[in-house]
Specification:
elongated, Beta Polymerase, domain 2, 416 residues, alpha+beta, single chain, two-stranded antiparallel sheet, seven-stranded mixed sheet, cca-adding enzyme, domain 2
Length: 416
């Protein structure tokens, strides 16, 4: 984006405002002198033309009044965050979060003690970035107490007030700063925010592993996180939260490959591109960041799988797919394709593209022999029968999955 700041749309007829659940909640909470407004990411994304995934509202009404009025209108209310002033209203089958205006009383870098307020500017002042301190009423009228619209137009991710004060309230905001820059930023990051992140990055040590990994993964999900990750590395924030990384150079070629081939952003594949395929580093990172079992398994399989040649034949690739599963092979080939693309090696790209297409079209065949078949031939359940089944399965794989059940059992009868 360059030139004059972009013109922002009129929200009066935006789908988020016209959605039946939005209209129902606005109507239920309508109270003279106690307005309710859309807030935060709902307004930000609507103004940017980005998808609005969640409907969030802020209200002068306290949670008990929100609950009373919503239930009086026949809507279901769930106290999802009552300790922080938040309830979820279910309207037309969709959740709408409503949070009472708040001000921080005390913070410790991870969580805050709050009090309710009726001052919209005070509520805005406790938020992280100016582009998230935007409000919109039921008629589409914007309320911008802190100049967030100008920053949004300029794609500038700017902390509200003093950047260091905002970070000390919650050190996760350092990672959020880079995440928002990855999704919405333009040009260089805000200098004051960047300096504050550098000075206070050690504060991230108090954060839980789950919160750190959640933010890292969301950064990696951005359409193009390369610039944000470059600044994370420059400020040594990346090294602080991901010391196992060996650098970010390869993520540029991977993103280029995604764009060239139409691959969807894959945060784990992007993580692989900046990690060495070493089981010890994968184990250390997975334990430290408390990755999900499925995430750890995928990374471990990618790191430990035997090397596979780019020109592997269809039959050999089918056998590898059967033994290893498609995911680690797909990961290896996609990263190899990105490397070849970055090197301008068109022949290698064509071959790898063919291998990836083969993987996408491959369907796992079903081994035709079961333990029951062997029992009918007089074999007893146990380790010996398991070894026999494994030997038959290996014979079947080596045949290109062509040996029939009858042929395999005939070999058993003849004393295989």
């Amino acid at each position: 984006m360059s030139g004059a700041p972009r013109e922002l749309p009129d929200l009066k007829n935006h789908p988020a405002l016209r959605a039946p659940e939005t209209k129902a909640v606005f109507k239920a909470l309508e109270t003279p002198g106690a307005p309710t407004r859309l807030v935060g990411g709902t307004v930000r994304n609507a103004l940017l033309g980005e998808p609005v995934k969640d409907i969030d509202m802020a209200s002068v009404l306290t949670p008990d009044r929100v609950t009373q009025k919503a239930e009086a209108a026949g809507l279901k209310v769930v106290p999802t965050g009552i300790g922080h002033g938040t309830v979820t209203i279910v309207a037309h089958g969709q959740p709408v979060e409503v949070t009472t205006l708040r001000a921080d009383v005390e913070t410790d870098g991870r969580r805050a003690t709050i009090r309710y307020t009726e001052d919209w500017a005070e509520d805005a002042g406790r938020r992280d970035f100016t582009m998230n301190a935007l409000y919109c009423d039921a008629d589409g009228n914007l309320f911008d107490p802190l100049g967030g619209i100008g920053d949004l137009q300029a794609r500038k991710v700017r902390f509200i007030g003093d950047a260091e004060d905002r970070i000390r309230e919650d050190y996760l905001r350092i990672l959020r700063f880079f995440r928002f820059f990855a999704f919405y930023g333009h040009g260089r990051p805000d200098a004051a925010g960047l300096k504050a992140c550098v000075r206070l990055k050690s504060g991230m040590d108090v954060l839980s592993a789950e919160r750190i990994w959640s933010e890292l993964k969301r950064i990696l999900e951005a359409p193009d996180p390369a610039r944000a990750m470059l600044w994370m590395r420059t400020t040594e924030v990346l090294q602080r939260v991901l010391p196992e990384s060996w650098g970010i150079d390869s993520i540029h070629t991977l993103i280029a490959a995604e764009q060239a081939e139409g691959w969807l952003p894959d945060p784990l594949l992007r993580l692989q591109s900046i990690m060495p395929p070493r089981a010890d580093r994968i184990d250390a990172m997975s334990e430290r960041l408390k990755l999900a079992k499925s995430e750890t398994a995928r990374l471990s399989e990618w790191a430990t799988i035997d090397q596979v040649a780019a020109d592997i034949s269809d039959d050999a690739l089918a056998a590898r797919l059967y033994r290893d599963g498609p995911q680690p092979l797909r990961d290896r080939f996609q990263l190899a394709f990105a490397k070849a693309l970055g090197e301008g090696n068109d022949d290698a790209c064509q071959g790898l593209r063919s291998r990836l297409a083969f993987i996408e079209g491959w369907q796992k065949p079903e081994f035709p022999v079961t333990g029951k078949d062997l029992m009918l031939l007089g074999h007893e359940p146990g380790p010996a029968m398991g070894e026999l089944l494994a030997a038959l399965e290996e014979q079947w794989i080596e045949s290109g999955f062509t040996l029939s059940r009858e042929t395999l059992l005939k070999d058993v009868r003849e004393g295989l």
